[in-house]
Amino acid sequence: MSAQELKRKLATILSGDVKGYSRLLAKDQEGTIRTLNAHKEVMANLIQQCQGKVIDAPGDNVHAEFSSVMDAVQCAVEIQKELKNRNDELPEPRRMEFRIGINLGEVSEKEGKVFGDGLNVAARIQLLADAGGICLSGIVYEQIKDKLEFRYEYLGKQIVKNIAEPVRVYQILLDAQAASLVSRWKRTGLNYWKRVHPAIKIILAVAALINAANIYWQLYTKPSHTPVEVTSKEMMALQLPDKPSIAVLPFTNMSKDPKQEFFSDGLTEEIINGLSKIPQIFVIARNSTFLYKGKTVDIKQVGREMGVQYVMEGSVRREGNRLRITAQLIDATTGRHIFSERYDRALKDIFATQDEITIKVLTALQVALTEGEYARFKARGVSNVEAYFKLLEAWDVFQQINKENNARVRKLAEEAVSLEPGSSRAYAIIAMTHFWDYWLDPAKPPDESVAQGIEIAQKSITLDKNNSYAHGVLAMLYVNKGEYDRAVEEAEVAASLDNGALTNLGSTLMHACRFTEAITVLEKALRLNPLRPHSSCLMNLAISHSMIGQYDQAVQYNKRLLQSQPDHFIGNLSLTVTYSKMGRMEDARKQAAEVLRINPKFSLERLTKVMRYKNPVYTEHWIKALRDAGLT
Q1: Which of 65, 10, 57, 47 is nearest to 337 (CA)?
Q2: Per-residue confidence at 382, pLDDT binned at 50, 70, 90?
Q3: How many C-beta neighbours within 10 Å does residue 49 have?
Q4: Terminus of the chain with fewer CB atoms < 10 Å: N or C?
Q5: Any residues with CB less than 8 A from the CB of 153 and at least 6 apart, and which?
Q6: CB 30: neighbour CB atoms within 10 A?
Q7: What average pLDDT does the segment 235-264 reach?
Q8: How many domains does the chain have?
Q9: d(CA 438, CA 484)
Q10: Residue 222's pLDDT is what?
Q11: How far apart are CA 410 and CA 247, in angstroms?
């Protein structure tokens, strides 16, 4: 078998990671790394002594493979015993406790890397272990329950993400008596084995072979789930970026109250936003990752469709003033778990928990932050938890924008300001509602909406100059005011603080009639959002191509937009203009009829008043093309 071929085998996998590693790292990076390396060295030595092999050790994780279930379990107990002794010698803030999960299952090996459900289940059940504890899958427990004199606690059947059937999980109850049993087994076991009659040894060996054959049938021959698939980097639908790339999938709401959905969505967005502020990472935007919401996903397929190497997923349970968050980072090209972490926290610690999760990702991807980057990452424009929940709800409402929802968003953001008068984030959202008044509320004078929005956006920036969202809102308001150069300046600041603001920058460049530059920026934004791009990204790509005579590309982007949003008003207008400029007048008139279907009160006079281009010639071109298509 060549090195390139996939080797499948049955193995016992031990998976361990540090409980609360991100928090330790944030307090003392140098000391934490020193302790981690010392602990991992202890683990590697014990694994080798117990006939195991370390197969991977990224960040604070350790994955090991054993040919014997008993060896793996004994090794895990010895590891926890030795690490406890070493932690006892350390000051309290530097103590580092590992959680360990053990599973027996099928794994695949290719080019020295081990992956597959056998490893995935071990990494998942590791999440259920206490700090310094050990959890076993049901199949491991069955192999050792009558052979090792430990006490066990049954934790029930656990839903393991991306594994079809629930997994029975047991916890080893580690105490002084249990720990001593391992030493006693080591002292007496080998001597006892030497005294066993040869015939008995043969019988036991045959029984072991029969047992192994049964396990093999259960895991290999018996009809099972889809076989492990390897996603090589060459198989990606989109080319991988030249830096660490990640997609954060919507965290699952595990709360009993479905109304808490906005909270799990908000947590996901906070992690995306935090990572997007780091220029060393390529982060897929919310619109695309939320296409997977509520679906059972294949992580490797997600990686292919998004063109990223890493995928993060998790769940959130909120009960009263307590939170339980789980988070896993997976290498989509191999299916290998980089880390699995569980956070049991008070609700008041939500900000610190979000930071912990994000720092954990940055550590796993080996990304170091400068002081300025760290400050931007920590800034979130709100510190009051109750105000934060108001803003999460406001942002959730903002996903379906109309006049009524715009008013509700403003009310929620104003309530957040009353709870925290210094919230930059709340003021930025209020400023955005004034931007939408310009388009959605014809009864309100447009100049008044723009003036109010600019004043509030500037106040938001005064409170936090690193608020990229506030700079982006201010840029759009300056466009509405006709101050295009100032708009581009603000949009450039927003994009320098957060890659998520690239669509805003591209749109602003388009209004400034810098169409070629706009296309370059918007194509970058499109790569960050490959599955469900923001409508304004597709719309402004179409308009920019049309403005410079690239009509085929304009038609392509307009049709892509209208395929998902057939009633998109500007998209239908833009396609009408493009067909008219191409001389495809029959198509242009059909599209014009769609414009009137969507907005029966449409008038060129009203459109002329709200269109914003630095060079008015382009507005005249649009109006002429629409008039030629039969609109008045």
Answers
A1: 57
A2: confident
A3: 11
A4: N
A5: 170, 171, 173
A6: 8
A7: 80
A8: 4
A9: 17
A10: 35
A11: 30
DSSP 91: -
Residue 197 lies in a domain: yes
433: domain range?
379-497
In angstroms, rounded to a whole number, what is the distance separating the alpha carbons of residues 104 and 632? 72
**91 burial type by CB count under 10 A (0-12 exposed, 13-18 middle, 19+ buried):** exposed
Distance CA 13, CA 54 (A): 10
Supply the pLDDT for residue 377: 53
| Residue 513 is assigned to a structural domain of this protein | no
Minimal CA–CA distance to 564: which of 519, 599, 529, 611? 529
CATH number at residue 599: 1.25.40.10
8-state DSSP, 295: S
> What residues form DSSP beta bridges with 172?
134, 152
pLDDT at 200 (0 to 100): 45
Q: How far apart are CA 136 and CA 72, in angstroms?
A: 10
Q: Which of 480, 497, 514 is the last residue of a domain?
A: 497
CA separation for the pair 167, 162 (Å, rounded): 12
- Residue 17 inside a domain? The answer is yes
What are the residues facing 621 on neighbouring strands?
A: none
DSSP string, 562-580: HHH-TT-HHHHHHHHHHHH
Distance, in Å, from the CA atom of 536 to the CA atom of 473, rounded to the nearest integer, reads 14
Amino acid 478: pLDDT: 96
Share of the chain above pLDDT 90, in %: 37
Whole-angstrom distance, CA of residue 603 vs CA of residue 528: 36
Q: What is the predicted pLDDT for the residue at 204?
A: 42
| Residues ≥6 apart with Cβ < 8 Å to 283 | 245, 246, 247, 248, 272, 275, 276, 499, 500, 528
CB atoms within 10 A of CB 176: 7
CB 603 within 8 A of CB 590: no
What is the mean pLDDT of the segment spanning 191-214?
44
How many Å apart are CA 104 and CA 497, to the nearest integer? 46
Euclidean distance between CA atoms 497 and 152, whole angstroms: 51
Q: Which residues of 514-528 are buried (b: 16+ CB within 10 A; e: fewer)?
A: bbebbbebbeebbbb
Which amino acid belongs to residue 219? L
Kindly write down the DSSP assignment for every residue of 4-57, as one continuous string.
TS-EEEEEEEEEEEETTHHHHHHH-HHHHHHHHHHHHHHHHHHHHHTTEEEEE-
Task: Output the six-digit token pair for 293.
Answer: 């919401």
Are residues 290 and 248 part of one domain?
A: yes
Residue 136 lies in a domain: yes
Same domain membership, residue 172 and residue 66: yes
Backbone angles phi, psi at 320, to 5 degrees: 60, -125
Residue after which a domain boundary falls, among 153, 187, 221: 221
Among 361-370, 436-445, 523-532, 545-554, the range with the most confident prediction by mean pLDDT is 545-554
Q: Are residues 256 and 354 in the same domain?
A: yes
Whether the CA torsion 111, 113, 118, 124 is positive or negative: it is: negative
Do residues 38 and 170 share a domain?
Answer: yes
Question: Distance between CA 97 and CA 417 in Å, rounded?
Answer: 41
Q: Are residues 483 and 540 in the same domain?
A: no
Pair (344, 475) in one structural domain: no
Q: Same domain, yes or no, for 214 and 245?
A: no
- Do 269 and 416 have their domain in common? no
